[in-house]
Amino acid sequence: MSLAIFDLDNTLISIDSDHAWGEFLLEQGAVDPIAYREANERFMADYNAGTLDMAAFLEMALKPLADNTPEQLASWHQQFMASKIEPNILPKAEELLARHRTRGDTLLIITATNHFITAPIAERLGVDDLIAVDPERVDGRYTGRVAGIPSYREGKVTRLKQWLEGQEFTLDGAWFYSDSHNDLPLLEQVEHPVAVDPDETLRQVAEERQWRIMSLRD
């Protein structure tokens, strides 16, 4: 039995849930239709290029959580799951998760997307353990700020090590599946790094290092 770690966006699902949530908010008329769309697209391009200013992105991304009631957010998220997430869950990803469950592995999703967006997705996928960006809450309301270290790039390694301190197992024999070169710091930490439908940079690194490359979309 080992730890099987999975990136979420463009790995287990065929879209980026952070970006899709932004699109959903635009469709609801919940954010500025011009400034928010421009920022959402710019930050997505920066992420893909490996140049994302995470603090600036989170300032934008977490503001709608602070601007709306928990009841409104919960209602929106139900719609978001049905319209954006469910159609983009990859059957082969569910099969991969099932194979690791059958092996007796512990499943963990680690993502740079925030916990509000991703916790229901992890639950839908049957993955109990999740490390995500934690939006700060005070008296049940989101503040628009981040609690702790964002699980992005090297932050994923830091957050995983913190999580492991409370567990009875280690990274010995661990797997990590990801599509993004932004996850190279964590891919380098595990015994079984797997590039899943990788971006160009990750594919090149995976080929050079003879890491496994696989597709969950074919």
UniProtKB/TrEMBL annotation:
Its EC number is 3.1.3.15. InterPro entries: HAD-like_SerB (IPR050582), HAD-like_sf (IPR036412), HAD_hydro_SerB1 (IPR006385), HAD_sf (IPR023214). It catalyses: L-histidinol phosphate + H2O = L-histidinol + phosphate. Transmembrane segments: none annotated. It comes from the Bacteria. It is an enzyme of class 3 (hydrolase). It holds the Pfam family HAD. Catalyzes the dephosphorylation of histidinol-phosphate to histidinol, the direct precursor of histidine. Belongs to the HAD-like hydrolase superfamily. SerB family. This is Histidinol-phosphatase. It comes from Vreelandella andesensis.
